[in-house]
Amino acid sequence: MSEDSKKLPDELPTESSPAPLPILDWSSPPGGKMSWPELVGVTAEEAERKIKEEKPELKIHIIPPNSMVTMDYRLDRVRLFVDESGKVAQEPRLG
């Protein structure tokens, strides 16, 4: 690598430069509900419908028993952990 290629550009970004990505602030959750304890014991379909009524922008994932999930935290997702009968087994929450 030559010395010239290590130099920073002399010009500032222009309007044609891509905008910087926003910084996500995980310390302050979005407005509204963060969990739905009242949905434990209802069917996954009913729980999904009720959550979508309140927050239609959320992605709902139905998780069967004994399934593995990633540990990432997403404020646009609610996981519905269901039991063998298809009913919500634990409190649905954002993340």
From TrEMBL:
SUPFAM superfamilies: CI-2 family of serine protease inhibitors (SSF54654). One of its GO terms (molecular function) is serine-type endopeptidase inhibitor activity. InterPro entries: Prot_inh_pot1, Prot_inh_pot1_sf. Residues 1-32 are annotated as: Disordered. One of its GO terms (biological process) is response to wounding. Residues 1-10 have a biased composition (Basic and acidic residues). The keyword ATP-binding does not apply. It comes from the Eukaryota. Keywords: Protease inhibitor, Serine protease inhibitor. Belongs to the protease inhibitor I13 (potato type I serine protease inhibitor) family. This is Subtilisin inhibitor 1. It comes from Solanum commersonii.
